[in-house]
Amino acid sequence: MSKNTVFTILAIIGGLVVFGWLLKFTFALLGPIALLGVGAVVYLAVTRNKRLGGPK
């Protein structure tokens, strides 16, 4: 194997490892992000006429 082939294989393995960490991190934060989203929707529904750009 040439040097470039080994480098390419190591780069692919490293990319898969980083992608796995990102997926793990994303799914770990999915619950809190969903809660923040629901809270924002409820807030906007309660204050629909008072928010910026709404009727005065």
Beta-strand share of residues: under 5%
What value does the average pLDDT take?
A: 87
Please count the helical segments: 1
The tally of strands reads 0
Helix content: over 70%
**Unreliable parts:** none
Structural class: mainly alpha
Oligomeric composition of the shown chains: single chain
Distance between the termini: 71 Å
Rounded to an integer in angstroms, the radius of gyration calculated over CA atoms is: 22 Å
Shape: rod-shaped
> Would you list the SSEs in sequence order as H and E?
H
Biggest sheet features: none
Short description:
With 56 residues, the protein is mainly alpha-helical.
What are the key terms here?
single chain; 56 residues; 0% strand
What order do the helices and strands come in, and which of them pair?
Elements: H1 3-46
Describe the structure.
The chain has one helix at 3-46. It has 56 residues and is mostly helical. The chain is rod-shaped.
